[in-house]
Amino acid sequence: MFKNKNWGVLLGAAFLMATSAVGPGFLTQTTVFTQALGASFGFVILASIILDIGAQLNVWRVIAVSEKRAQEIANMVLPGLGIFISVLIVLGGFAFNIGNVGGAGLGFNVLFGMSAEAGAILAAAIAIGIFLVREAKKVMDRFAQIMGLLLILLMVYVAFTSAPPLAEAAVKTILPDEISFTAIITLVGGTVGGYITFAGGHRLLDAGIKGKASLPEVTNSAVSGITIASVIRIFLFLAALGVVSKGLILDESNPPASVFQLAAGNVGYKIFGVVMLSAAITSVIGSAYTSVSFIKSFKPAFEKYENWLIIGFILISTIIFVTIGRPVHLLILAGALNGLILPITLGTILWAAHKSKIVGDYKHPIILTVFGLFVVLVMAWMGGYTLVEQLPALFN
């Protein structure tokens, strides 16, 4: 797939995007929707994969040919728009990072019995340690690859032990009994929404992989990122399907843990701890790195002290979780904003893709523009609906 000297960075960017997407919310959403839709959830996954690829290819390609980060592109489209988008990305990434830290703490709790708060502190220390070394970004790439491969292997094992009805899953993926529009939108937002959309593209730009000549590499890396996240989701879906198809009841308080335990007993429960820890800590790293990438271009000092800003981002998220817990209202608002971030950012990228002052003589494929516009319209409607529905909760 990657045949040149940049293969490590290209693969690292793909895994960074994928593991940023696979967090505590990813695990819960997949399990809950499988319980609700059964084998028909396979169709939702297939539809979301197609939409995810359409969104990511637009974003990564335009970042590469423009040789600019998303906020810089946005400011060229409309002065001040880049600052507005950066604020949305950073606030959303920060709020969700509190949940990611909490998820990592839960993983340590399952594995070793320590409190979630102590586990969160230990997970934050591991993440911070990566950004204290000289070659932090290379270490980040390798860490994301190792954790991503571990997630895939564990998901395959649990899916195998749960013995899902594969033939039914294959048929219902093409001919579902029901189609959940909400599930499709949730999966798209959870896989390529908010900061996740730009994790890989900004990583490649930082590594110097840019320009029209790099487009084949960038395209492969983007598709690989979606593929990795999708493989993890598919095997988690199969694991959950194997459990619910037997009529077993999932624990509403922690559906993903219930799937692992029912599929493989106490060993499965420990595997869940490893999966939750791996998914959460890589999301902590991806969220912090990508959020800071949206502000570091505004001042030279930000670029110079990038790693320290990332460390501060992780520290503050951890302190809030340990001292206050997960601020529910903030997470509710952040979830609604996350649904709005994708149409705003993707719409901006699509506009920029056809402005020669940004992309030069590059001609953006029409099919990608159409794909992107479809995602923008659908996500804008759903994000707006969610925001209107959830705002009253902030004042109760």
Task: Draw up the topology in text.
Layout: H1 7-21, H2 24-37, H3 41-66, H4 70-77, H5 81-112, H6 116-130, H7 136-162, H8 166-174, H9 181-192, H10 196-206, H11 215-244, H12 255-293, H13 300-304, H14 306-323, H15 328-352, H16 356-359, H17 366-390
Helix pairs in contact: 1-7, 1-10, 1-11, 1-12, 2-9, 2-11, 2-12, 3-8, 3-9, 3-10, 3-11, 3-15, 3-17, 4-5, 4-15, 5-6, 5-12, 5-14, 5-15, 6-12, 6-14, 7-11, 7-12, 10-12, 11-12, 12-14, 15-17
Keywords: Membrane, Transmembrane, Transmembrane helix
Protein name: Divalent metal cation transporter
Subcellular location: Membrane
Mean pLDDT: 88
Structural category: mainly alpha
CA-based gyration radius:
20 Å
Principal-axes shape call:
globular
Percentage of residues in DSSP E strands: under 5%
Percentage of residues in helical conformation: over 70%
Q: Largest sheet at a glance?
A: none
Unreliable segments of 5+ consecutive residues: none
End-to-end separation: 52 Å
Helix and strand sequence: HHHHHHHHHHHHHHHHH
Tell me the count of domains. Answer: 1
User: How large is the count of helical segments?
Assistant: 17
> Could you give the count of β-strands?
0
Question: In a few lines, what is going on in this structure?
Answer:
Keywords: Membrane, Transmembrane, Transmembrane helix. One of its GO terms (cellular component) is plasma membrane. The protein has 396 residues and is mostly helical.
Keywords:
396 residues, mainly alpha, 17 helices, globular
Give an overview in words:
The model has no long low-confidence stretch (mean pLDDT 88). With 396 residues, the chain is mainly α. It has one domain. It is built from 17 helices and no strands.
